[in-house]
Amino acid sequence: MLDAKFYDTLVRLRLSIGQKSSMSMSGNRKSVQKGSSAEFSDFREYMAGDDIRRIDWNAYARLDKLFIKEYMEEKEAVVSILIDTSASMNYGEQKKSDLALSIAAALSYLALSGMDRVIVYDMKRMASPFMVTGGKKGYPRLLKWLEQLSFEGAADIHTAIRQMALKGPGMTILISDFLTEGMVNGPEDEIEKIMKYLDYRRQKAVMLHVMAGEELEIGLSGTYNLIDMEDQDQLRITMDAESIRDYQKGLDSFLNKLKRICRKTGSSYVLCSTAKDLYQLIFEDLRILYDI
Q1: Could you give the strand order of the β-sheet that contains 203-211, starting from the edge strand earlier in sequence?
Q2: Same structural domain for residues 165 and 69?
Q3: What is the pTM for the complete model shown?
Q4: What CATH number is given to the structural domain containing 137?
Q5: pLDDT averaged over the chain?
Q6: Exposed site from 47, 54, 175, 276, fewest CB < 10 Å?
Q7: pLDDT tens-digit profile of 16-56?
């Protein structure tokens, strides 16, 4: 799916979760819990039962009181990745589904390199996610799981998000073309509610909008019978200059709506085109997701 040079470059990056974790597993994120790692956090007065090895004797000599040194405990963060596996993702000379899987693989590797927990969801089968923890050793199993995903039928993004098993703060990444009736023609406040829900659940929400190059720049001319890949509805249309202008106007309105909602809710939005070089997409366009 990705080559060795790609992984060598990727491992230098780190996802910017932005929230402190409270998970019980060990990792590389600073937790709100106090532990025994090497990074000093604060002092507090000694209490019966405290480890006497953590007493600051210099403070005792100055203040004639016993104080305990507290340290930040390192914990893993949770990175949840939801992949739209609807039939529309199979569109394009370079399929949107292939790009979605490559992005999911890259971000999963990045999270595992940082000792974070990764949970990958098939939006049509939310009850059976794939979870990996403990670093990169579980990455080959995750790749196999991604490779067996099938892109067919329809997926309900709103329902999928509500079915996530969210425990504690983390990052939720939505990878989709978002080409559903509710997303394209629905009111902004309905989509906004979903993003606000993720914020309420202490998630750093990310919309990765995967589109085919042919969808972003129309190169067709003439009359065609268009067939919906999900419900098989048909539409006969003539692609002339006027219809292309109308399409572009509708597309721009759709893209701007999603960007506007993400700005309003503090979420991140990135348009991911299949026509773009994968290296540029991962290492430049997605820079807003990394600690650099």
Answers
A1: 130-132, 117-122, 78-83, 170-176, 203-211, 268-273
A2: no
A3: 0.78
A4: 3.40.50.410
A5: 84
A6: 47
A7: 886 543 333 444 554 444 444 555 556 667 766 667 777 88
Angle between the N-to-C axes of helices 241-265 and 188-200, in degrees from 0 to 180, rounded to the nearest 10: 30
- Give the pLDDT mean for 227-246: 67
For residues 113 and 154, membership in a common domain is answered with yes
Provide the domain limits for residue 176: 78-289
Task: Please tell me the predicted confidence (pLDDT) of residue 28.
Answer: 52
